Structures
1.
Amino acid sequence: MNKKVMIMASIGLVLVCLGIGGGLFFTQQQKEQQAEQSQKKSLAAQKEKEAAEMKKKEATAEKPKPVDGKQKIAYLTIDDGPTQYLSKILAALKKENARATFFFVGNNIKNEYKAGIKQAVQDGNSVGAHSMTHDSKKLYKQGQFIPEMEQTSELLSGIVGKKIGLIRAPYGSTYLNKEQVQKAKADKFRLLDWNIDSNDWKHKGKPQGIVDFVNRELDGFHKISPVILVHETKDTLDAIPALVKAIRAKGFQLEPYFEDNDFHLNFKKDPDL
């Protein structure tokens, strides 16, 4: 009899221990679940906060402070591409909510850069022809300016799926003769020169030098839009964040230049070119 009692007591003790252990296990599991849920909520709240801050930053970037109550327009133009830096420059511009105007050299348009040219247009940038060779002798002395512009324009049109009528003369339209000017107008090309040369070649390896120079030049622009010339290089890529900020700080809205723009700027001072 005592043996049976002892066995029953042992069984009871085991059951009690199991009950206590199970309760502790489920309690611990519940705590871990609650901690996991709390962590998820905290991460979600952090993401919402970061998204709100980013949205606020973008809104501020899109609306630079006007000067004297008037919003002025500036055009950032990037020559001599496409190059290996095109896609990164596009990403940098997109990050700053800025758009630019790209002038491409036909002989540089290799297959690996065609997607970047399409992306430039999709992002709202404008693109134009900058000749096939960028060779002043061929363009001006041998009279190949118009044929090369037509060829480059046709090449770009085939890539982006629309007619490209915007052109920039290598070294500027100063070198065009009267016949070339008239033919450019007959072809309905819009030629854009520049009024701020960043002299980026002088600041090679020093992107802040580009920014500082352009920033000083902008002080002289009150009644006319600045058209800023830079080139598709690593220095331009590195300069973009500070350059965009400097331009906007002077009260300018950055816009791409399209061929139907009412604002004409060429060294020939021809309102129809």
2.
Amino acid sequence: MKKGQLVRVVDIFDYNRRPISQRVTDELLRQTYINDYKTNKYNFKKENQIAQNYVKKELKLITSSRFYWSKEGVRYLQQLKLDYSDDFDILLKIERLNDTSFKLIFGDVKGNSVSTWKVAYLPNGQYKSKIIATRLPLEKLKVRMKVYEIRNGKLTIHED
């Protein structure tokens, strides 16, 4: 930061040096949920306006001082959370695109890529930034994974 303005993001690790911070993961999930909401996953748009507004407020699609709560909206968001509970657990690749953005490729337990994202940090006031996550076309990637198995009481290790 130069005089409090964003110049370069050094890395996107969290304070425990995990590959990406919870702030980034939260934004990736939010964008995934927004996409599902917009494409009417589970036919949710048939629900009443209070449920719609609850979900929109939780996803930060609307800013309203009104309080919305809906059992249907809570259930819908819980289902989305279950749907994507492990989608951002395995980070196969991080690539710096420029001073303030990165490309992230996530994979499954077999080392195959399942989603590609661009994460950009934008200035949002002095000493602050906001994250914009954009889903990119899937970049095919296969990473060799070590598989640990116990068979007949013996540990075996092999690459998948």
3.
Amino acid sequence: MEVPLSWQLAKLLVSIGMVLGLSVIAERVSTRVAGLLAGYPLGTAIALFFIGLELSPQFAADGAVHTLAGFTATLAFGGGYLLAGRRDGLPGILRGTGLGLIAWLATSLMLTQLDFTRVSGTLTTLVAIALFSWLYRRIPETRATPRGGFAWSALALRAGLAAGIIFLITGLAHVLPAAWAGVMAAFPVTMYPFLVILHLAQGAAPVATVIKHYPLGLGSLLCYALVVSLTYASLGLWSGTLLGFAAATLWLLLWTRLRSWWQRRRSSTAIETP
């Protein structure tokens, strides 16, 4: 199927906007919030929507079932990047990217060999979230330093990486099975370019903080993928996407409130303890 130029331009513009938004949040708010929002259905939503638009809603819905488990491969990517990308500058970026891609590909190969259901795919990623959250528990918190504006080179790099990944995923979906398309849709499309820019500008420490909080934000992605897997074929792409974002946003709000309550409770308990 020939893809209209307007669809290609839409993918490009949306990808750029998502990455820039994460960067602004990291620099103006905090890397912790950026890490949580990196788990919001940004790149995954773009990929699944355009896969459904270019192929069929049913194909995208079938792929979304494997996206549920595919987030485990995304967590593996983050773990690989964290382990190898401890140096500042380009050497850290290249090493982190290399090991991250190896970890993602190895995990994806295993996941695509299994016949996941919505339940088994969700449970697989939930176990991975618990494991990686425990592994990351001792990573120190480091805030990104506000820079006051964006360099044109950084803008071009963000745009190129995000758009290139989106085009690669949606292009390969035309020749690969739904299982692979779904797993690829779970790739951190917006988070990875954001990590590269943050790493290049401010070093490895803020990047580690973003990766530390990424697993906790994946709950919204799971909600999104689950909803679109149920609604794309029956309600269509636009309605399914809106319902998916509604479910993801609700989960993120509930999780944020629960986390704030738990932190306040721990603080008050620590004060009361002699």
